[in-house]
Amino acid sequence: MTTKIIHGPTTVYRFKVVRAFLKAGVPINKIDQFREIFEDQGYSLSHSSNLSTMIDVINKEEKEKVKKEITGRNVSVIFDGTAHVSEATNIIVGFVSDDWKIEQHLVKLLLVKKSMTGEELAQQLLSCLSTNLGINLALLLAATRDRASVNDVAVRTLKILYPNLVDIGCFSHTLDHALRRENGNTRLASVYKGLDRSFCSQSEKQNCIQNTDRTNSQNPLSYQMVVKQQALLKIELGATVDAMKPFVKAIYDLEGDGPLALRAHQHLRTVESSIANAYYPNVIAVSRLLSQGNVPVQQQWINYATQCIRPAYQYYQDKFNHGPLQPLVTIFKSCRLFDPVKVKEMQPDAAAVHTLRCVPIFHADNVIQPLQGELATYQALTDDVAVEINVLEWWSQHSKEIPS
């Protein structure tokens, strides 16, 4: 028995269909349900089990395409693991294309039976980035990941081979941990457990809440506890809304798309300003209501709200201003020089450009000096820049005038 091999346009069409399903994330076996529609084009499709054999070919083509795209370019890597469904690690490479667009490609999805050690993860990263993609040792500039200890080990190993690598631990995770410090100091999750322990039945709780006079006369201690817990809950909710809203906004902003390196410092400073300003309108309103005009009592409620917030603020200060993330904050601060809007606002001098030396790729004199030489031209180009611009589009239009 011989197998009929079909060449030419039919094979090309089949590859096109399979590629479309892969890009859409649709299982290949669904092709059989769409066969009649696809074959209206005049080409035949084989069974989905046969078409699935094309996946390996397409995968190899895509890898070669990515390898060609990143050759000679500055590249960053993003890697992350999850145990949501099973142990899995994904590796993504990112770069800026010739037309100044940020491109990201998933280059490896690794399913494993158990969590990898730092050394094992480093081996997978090196195999993917160096062996498979052939990324030049000087051109891998950043590694973005969460701050799990296993990732610390992997990045330290990567930096041995890639000396210009900047380790970018996820700011959003750290801000989320700060939020947990605040929530952990309040009773939002446990307040009703106190009610459960204070009453014998659900009906008694309802009587207490719905008929305060009756509860007050029958069970004054329980009544006082309910009133106090409700007051605490109100003031804690006010503190959470007032103080933690900037944290939540920064978390979402820092998980967005686009040139985040240019905006990260601004997001962090916004959080820090909210800490310094200590403006808590909801806390003030709730404390005024609870104190019923008694100023000393109102101040006690405000002090309590401040105590609830303080652990989150202290955690932020320890991590971003005095701890392991401080050098990275300095790097992002210097990177604002690549935002024309900020350059127009700051009017930097040559000394400001010198601060870019904290970024490994800009450390050498033969890199910094050309940037300093172009500063006057750069500033002139920013004179009429709008407040809201697409930074990448701006650089696409002006990169030939300031090529360094």
UniProtKB/TrEMBL annotation:
Domain of life: Eukaryota
Name of the protein: DUF659 domain-containing protein
Lineage of the species this protein comes from: Eukaryota, Metazoa, Cnidaria, Anthozoa, Hexacorallia
